[in-house]
Design a protein that fits this description.
This protein is α/β, with parallel strands linked by helices and about 200 residues long. It contains seven helices and eight strands, in the order E-H-E-E-H-H-E-E-H-H-E-E-H-E-H. The relative contact order is 0.19.
Length: about 200
């Protein structure tokens, strides 16, 4: 039985909930899963690693970056997949030749809708992935998914609240609410399970 590490960082809980749902689905598919917060385990001894992060300022978190850099050698010898939570993602760049899965909860990810064009560009899948791909050369992910998370600006730190207020003005689709789509998460995890079993 293949042994799978699911490791994640989570700012306000949404990414942790996605990770738990993925773990439940993969366990149900007969895979041996270890679920942990990033930094508590390394990928040595695992057949695959699934790495998850919220998107903050258009990037994954510093802890996830550190994990990817520190464990690059081990990750380059096993199957790897990534998942991210965010409130907006566009996929309007056809040249992005990556195995992407975008939560259908996002409103038509191919349509521009920003009041400020720069903000739309900064919320493109390719922009989010630019830094990750730079620090993970030689790793060809099985799949990369983006799931819509949840937002409650009253619970954010002052800094994150100011950032999100601006983002909400620039991108009207960003609104307070719980948008976690467990059906989409299970769908992606089920597809991933098939690839992990036979890849």
């Amino acid at each position: 039985m293949k042994k799978i590490l699911i490791t994640y960082d989570s700012g306000y809980g949404a990414t942790a909930d996605v990770a738990k749902t993925i773990a439940e689905k993969l366990t149900g598919e007969g895979l041996n899963v270890d679920l942990c917060i990033v930094g508590s385990k390394d990928p040595v001894g695992y057949d695959a690693a699934i790495v998850g992060s919220p998107i903050r300022l258009s990037q994954c978190t510093p802890k996830i970056k550190k994990f990817l850099k520190t464990n690059h050698s081990a990750l380059s010898h096993i199957q790897v997949a990534f998942f991210f939570t965010c409130m907006c993602v566009t996929n309007n760049e056809s040249e992005l030749e990556l195995p992407l899965y975008i939560d259908p909860g996002f409103n038509n990810p191919n349509q521009p809708r920003a009041r400020i064009k720069l903000m739309e560009d900064n919320h493109a899948a390719s922009y989010y992935l630019k830094y990750i791909l730079k620090i993970t050369p030689g790793i060809s992910p099985l799949s990369i998914s983006f799931f819509k998370g949840r937002l409650n600006t009253s619970k954010l730190s002052m800094f994150h609240r100011l950032i999100m207020r601006f983002a909400m003005f620039a991108l009207p689709e960003i609104q307070n609410g719980d948008y976690l789509n467990k059906a989409a998460i299970r769908d992606w995890a089920g597809r991933l399970a098939t690839r992990l079993k036979f890849g």
